[in-house]
Specification:
The chain is mainly alpha-helical. The protein has 10 helices and 5 strands; from the N terminus they run αββααβααααααββα. The protein has helices at about 20-25, 65-75, 80-90, 120-135, 135-145, 150-160, 170-180, 190-195, 230-240, 265-280; strands at about 30-35, 55, 110, 250-255, 255-260. The chain has a 3-stranded antiparallel beta sheet with strand order 1-2-3, with helices on one face. A two-stranded antiparallel ribbon has the order 4-5. α2 (about 65-75) crosses α3 and α6 crosses α9 (about 230-240).
Length: about 280
């Protein structure tokens, strides 16, 4: 994240992107387990005598396209099958989502047995998300923050992508809310990465001019949809952001994210980050 005032020369330097780190350390998409962690929507009964159950792991922050690819793999169907199913299936999504389930493919471990279908797996993920996001504490938190539940999920997805540690999530959420309240562009690398369908640690000046509603350097407010599928901690941070006046943050070193409301201090933190980054690549 760079989140600095627009048209300032120093804003065009590379910044660390949390999403890049998350994707690099994400767990394998398919595992074998005998534990049943959540119910599975099946079209047929599993074969008699079957003991082991293959499971689909959806890590926190994983994008919909990545979830589709994992479902294709675990069900051993042609690439693109689940993406087509997501478009055709009648998933119970919020009106604001249209037919795009991004943000509502709830992170969990889903047992996959004989007869499971892409539409069935996606439907259960969405139903799980609707149950979690429809809880009273989430709706009350969204109302308290002056946003909708769908916008809360979008904020949670940004928090999931940007926070360097779970402890930082509440502060990242506060930066998002503070910048929205001041009508400042969010300037998040994670949303730009989503627009460019990539995960990277660096962003160039020309990339910040990308024409996309997900480019929060050019467009104010939240992106039109979530940019991934957030988990419980990120959602809790989105509805209960830590108190503070912060407007800027940068991860100077792993585990050391600096939050501030003072732009001059932020510039000093960015300079330290750039120095550390340069030293690491030499």
């Amino acid at each position: 994240m760079r989140n600095e005032p627009p048209r300032t020369p120093s804003e065009r330097k590379p910044r660390l992107t949390r999403r890049g780190r998350l994707v690099l350390i994400a767990s394998a998409a398919v595992v074998v387990t005998t534990a049943v962690l959540v119910p599975l929507l099946l079209t047929d009964e599993p074969p008699a005598g079957e003991k082991k159950k293959v499971s689909l792991l959806v890590p926190e922050g994983r994008r919909a396209a990545q979830v589709y690819a994992s479902v294709d793999k675990v069900l051993d169907v042609a690439p693109g099958t689940t993406a087509k199913a997501a478009t055709a299936a009648r998933l119970e999504l919020p009106d604001a989502a249209g037919r795009n389930p991004e943000g509502y493919l709830f992170p969990a471990t889903y047992p996959v047995e004989a007869g499971a279908t892409p539409a069935g797996l996606l439907g259960y993920m969405v139903d799980t998300a609707r149950e979690r996001f429809g809880a009273d504490r989430v709706t009350a938190g969204a109302r308290r923050n002056g946003v909708t539940v769908y916008q809360t999920v979008t904020i949670a997805s940004i928090v999931q992508a940007e926070a360097d540690t779970p402890a930082d999530m509440g502060r990242v959420a506060r930066v998002v809310h503070n910048r929205l309240a001041k009508d400042m562009p969010l300037q998040m690398d994670s949303t730009l990465n989503y627009a460019l369908n990539r995960s990277t640690l660096d962003t160039t000046q020309s990339e910040t001019k990308t024409t996309s509603p997900y480019n929060t350097y050019e467009f104010r407010g939240l992106p039109p949809t979530p940019i991934g599928n957030p988990g419980e901690e990120a959602t809790n941070a989105a509805i209960n952001p830590t108190r503070g006046d912060w407007l800027y943050f940068v991860t100077v070193a792993p585990g050391d994210t600096r939050f501030t409301a003072d732009y001059a201090e932020h510039q000093r933190n960015v300079a330290e980050f750039n120095s550390n980054r340069s030293a690491a690549t030499n």
